[in-house]
Amino acid sequence: MRNVFDKIEQFLRFDELTSKSGFMRARAVYMMGLAFIATQLINLAAMYYTYGLSFDHLVSVMACGLVLITIVYLRSHKRFETYALIYSVLIVLGTMSSAMNQNTGINSALLPFFVLGIIVNGFICGWRATCAFGAFSLLIIWMLWGLSLNYDYTPIFDVEKFADRNFQRAMQASLASILITMVGAFFSKNMHEAFDELEAGITAAQESDRAKTDFLATMSHELFTPMNGIIGMNDVLEDTNLDEEQRELTTIIRDSGRDLQMIVGNVLLFAQLDAGRVKLDDEPFNIGAVLKETVQPYAAIAAKKGLAFKARMAPNVPKMLIGDEVRTGQIICTLLNNAIKFTDKGAVELTVKSQIDSQGRIQLIVIVTDTGIGIAPENIERMFERFTQQDGSIKRRHGGIGLGLTIASGLIDLMDGKITVDSEVGVGSSFTVVLTYAVPETDRAKTQTAQYQAAAE
User: Fold this and answer.
1) What residues form DSSP beta bridges with 436?
2) How many Å apart are CA 344 and CA 397, to the nearest integer?
């Protein structure tokens, strides 16, 4: 059922709405309209079962058609006062046509229609429209009471009692309409104010988030200058005559500085991604060279942890690709770093293969598999959120600030790729990334031949 409503909203172009209150109003228009059509279909069936086809059926079908046209009009027109007015006119016309039959006057069964009008106006337009419809309903009630004074048929009781009863009904209907209007206006005013406050809060939060992102980008950039100076001077110091203890201290400074440099670099890249400032290169590069440069340091880290490390590239992967060499390497580095960091025993494996998409481009498939701690199903969606790790104990044990996968996911999205995760707690995880590249014209025929041979095998 949810998919049906989603398709209706897509057809009605709800993506053009920029505010939550506008979305609520538009949804009220079509939901109330669909509810009206559904009730009229039931009413049509009941009338047909009771007394067959009649003029009433035609009126009901015309009303349904008008409501359907009103709903479809949402596609091109989002001024909601118009829809509240159309629904109000339909409610008033239906009420009056039923009540004016033989000038019988007030019928208490008609009161729910006034309630409906108050609710419709409250949802779509707000408390002022609610009050206006409430006032208009009072006018209609007393107009119908005036019509009942001209009742032409002989009632089963005397005329004075008939007039008294109609006056009492008019009073009860008026009091009920006033009460409902007051309650409806109160709730409508608070509801719309709550939506306005929510939208203002969202806007303020977004602006604050942008300010924080700009601050992170500026600070990270400024931190690089002194950090490079520290690392550079430490390198110079290592080339001097140092005793064993001093050399050990400079090694600690060097490793700590590079770790901090990597963290600052990640924060800067994250801030740039968040602010939409990352630009992609579109140049030919050697994918084999990128993989070799990427794998070497992580193979050493894995060996230091006692992990088996395997890396292989399928023979059909083209030698040259056209795209962003640096971002490709960063994505693979992040996945390898993440796999090794959360794997205490077993193995980490990198597999790179390729295939041709429908447009003749190369899809590079990067798979990183580990035998680490795994990820609980409920945490898989959260793991790509900023500064997120599964729990605090994992952060204390393995370190990191929780930006690696967020950055990788942002880069993958920027490159129009996709990432999927298959994981089981205590067994391990497998990350699969699919990135699309062009192939240099001189290598295209060779690449297609290699791909077809691989597919045949």
Assistant:
1) 363
2) 11
Q: What does the buried/exposed string (b/e) look like for 219-245 if buried means 16 or more CB atoms within 10 Å of the residue's CB?
A: ebeebeeebeeebeebeeeeeeeeeee
Identify whether the C-beta of residue 28 lies closer than 8 Å to the C-beta of residue 124. yes
DSSP-assigned letter for residue 410: H
Q: Which of 306, 432, 424 is nearest to 363 (CA)?
A: 432
Burial of residue 190 (CB within 10 Å: 0-12, 13-18, 19+) is exposed
Taking a C-beta distance cutoff of 8 angstroms, is the pair 328, 290 a contact? Answer: yes
What sections of 73-126 are H helices per DSSP? 80-99, 111-124
Which amino acid belongs to residue 12?
Answer: L
CA distance 416 to 434: 9
pLDDT tens digits, 22-53 = 888 888 888 888 888 888 889 888 888 888 88
CA angle 333, 335, 337 (to 5 degrees): 65
DSSP 29-84: HHHHHHHHHHHHHHHHHHHHHHH-S-HHHHHHHHHHHHHHHHHHGGGT---HHHHH
277 in helix, strand or coil?
A: coil
- Model pLDDT, residue 396: 45
360: pLDDT strictly greater than 50:
yes
DSSP E strand stretches across 142-298? 283-286
- Going by pLDDT thresholds of 50, 70 and 90, the confidence category of residue 98 is low
Smallest CA-to-CA distance from 408 within 353, 330, 350 is with 330
CA gap 275, 217 in Å, rounded: 9
Strand pairing class (283-286; 428-437) = unpaired
- Predicted pLDDT at 104: 57
Distance from C-alpha of 433 to C-alpha of 369, rounded to nearest angstrom = 12
Buried b (16+ CB within 10 A) or exposed e, 340-368: bbbbeeebbbbbbbbbbeeeebbebbbbb
The model carries a pTM of 0.54
Q: Beta 347-356 vs 308-313: how paired, if at all?
A: parallel
